[in-house]
Amino acid sequence: MSSKRFKKLPIKTTELAAESIDKLLSVIKKNCTTKFDESVDLSFQINNKQKKSEINIRTVVNLPGGTGRKIKVAVVCEDSKSSDANSAGADIVGGDDFIEKIKGGEMDFEKLICTPSMMIKLSKLGKVLGPKGLMPNPKLGTVTDDLKKAITDAKSGQAEIRNDKDGNIGVSIGKKSFADDKLIKNFNAILETLEKEKSNNTIKGDLIRSAFITSTMGVSYRLKLGKSI
Known about the structure:
By secondary structure, the protein is α/β, with parallel strands linked by helices. 31% of the residues lie in helices and 21% in strands.
């Protein structure tokens, strides 16, 4: 059952013609009628059914405008690198003892980074970390010896782009409180990353079938793709 607040929002917005993000942001923000700082979210439907194989996209993008969220970062590394991880701003740092805690169910973090030499031990916890999307991955920059860069990227504003089995991608570009130019920069960074993924996967035709924009508790609008300045 819809709330009184939701009933006051515009209806049938997904039936409207697609508009560019710079025209839709003011509308999206107007629909943010809750008391908290809602996220501005994108939803893409990709052409993941190709003749030879199904397209699976999983990558990260550093958002120039940040995410507006504080991420708790944990690092699994050798004792000799723990000071580097701590000085770079990691919230939790550990080695074998930390791996045992994770095995026991202690996962009070949102991003896990691991050095290559410790990954052999951590990989045994795939059934624990995998379903939660926390398993470090070289492609995502979370298996690395460059702990400072990985931690800085995670803390400064990084979003994961990943499609589900039906070809849907959901990603946030920031908060209602962000200035429009900051949200647009984040939007453009995501489009650039998707364009690279299209080239890497040698996709024929358009990668994106449809795109929508909404806020956490708002309604969706069709989004016209293309870089906005």
